[in-house]
Each structure stands twice: as C-alpha cells, then as structure tokens.
Design brief:
DUF1579, about 0% helix, mainly beta, single chain, globular, about 130 residues
C-alpha cells in the first residue's frame, strides 16, 4: 500500500488513506480492551473488504508492548480470483514502540500457503 499522507493514531484507533493497487484506499481501525476477557480486540473497516474485520487477542495475564490479534475474513478477491469467498486467516500485530509511535503488521495465510506479510504501517499520534 502506498500511503499518500502519514498514517495517524486517533485515540484508541487508527486511520489511513492512500492507494492500493492503483486504487484509492481508506481504513479506519478501532482498538479496545475487554475487561471481561482481559484481551484486546481490534475492528477495522476499509475500502477493499465489504464488511468489518474483527480480531481478538489472547487473554493477557500481564501487560505487553506487542499485541498479536488473529482473525479471519471472507476474501473479496484481494488475493486473486481463486480465493474469492474463501475464509482467510489474518493476523494484525501491533508493536507499541513508544507512546506516540506504533507499528502495525498485517499477515495473511492463504489456504495451502505459508503466512505472508501484506502490509506494514508506522503510525504516529496526531498533534493537538
């Protein structure tokens, strides 16, 4: 993905826009913590997939600076015509590097293939 403007942290989430495969791209992500399950949950909405994607991390016994949030999505053709409608495992790994700078890595695992990094974005918090 080519980001036309720097990605921004917006409170407990992120917002990014740019181009993907030559087409306009937009993503909004919301990060929350379930005090019941003691885990982080991450939901994204973007201009590529027609539905929200939700990821749920493992139960955390203690704090961490790396959040691994697995999930799945029904591929709308992002991986090519052979994958349309197939359930694809996806994992977002959020690394908190410092208070105002985080890295988001997104991995996909197509059926019968090994996991691959498909996106890496470095986010910086918006200034007031």
């Amino acid at each position: 993905m080519a980001v036309d403007r720097p990605a921004q942290l917006a409170g407990p989430g992120e917002e990014a826009e740019g181009t993907l495969g030559g087409n306009p791209y937009y993503r909004l992500g919301i990060l929350g913590f379930s005090t019941i399950d003691k885990r982080y949950e991450w939901t994204t909405f973007d201009s590529v997939t027609p539905s929200a994607m939700t990821y749920r991390g493992p139960n955390l016994a203690r704090g961490t600076h790396v959040l691994s949030l697995p999930g799945t999505f029904a591929d709308p053709g992002l991986l090519g015509p052979n994958y349309v409608g197939k359930t694809i495992p996806i994992c977002t790994v959020i690394t908190i590097r410092e208070n105002d700078r985080h890295t988001f890595d997104i991995y996909l695992t197509p059926p019968g293939e090994s996991e691959r990094l498909i996106d890496r974005v470095i986010y910086v918090r918006k200034s007031a």
